Fold this sequence. Notes:
By secondary structure, the protein is an all-alpha fold. The chain is built from four helices and no strands.
Amino acid sequence: MAWFLLFVAGLLEVGWAVGLKYTEGFTRPLPTVLTVLSMAASLALLGLALRTLPLGTAYAIWTGIGTIGTAALGIALFAEPADAARIACIALIVAGIVGLKLVTPA
């Protein structure tokens, strides 16, 4: 269950990171409220996952999911570059997440 909570927390991190773009400096009320709610939910789920998962592993995976998702949505939604070097770096983050999952008991 902790891994599932961590995964959802990571997805919510993507939501708030992308949401920050849509708040336009916290000047748009609805995107701002949704972003803040996503932040709170993401941190709450991370906290629940930390009850059983090691801190370093959970935090690295949480931020990794957020990084991968945010980079992918930046490419898809905001026409950010998708060159080979960028994709290779994202793949390294994926490899790190998989590696941490494989070596972490729980």
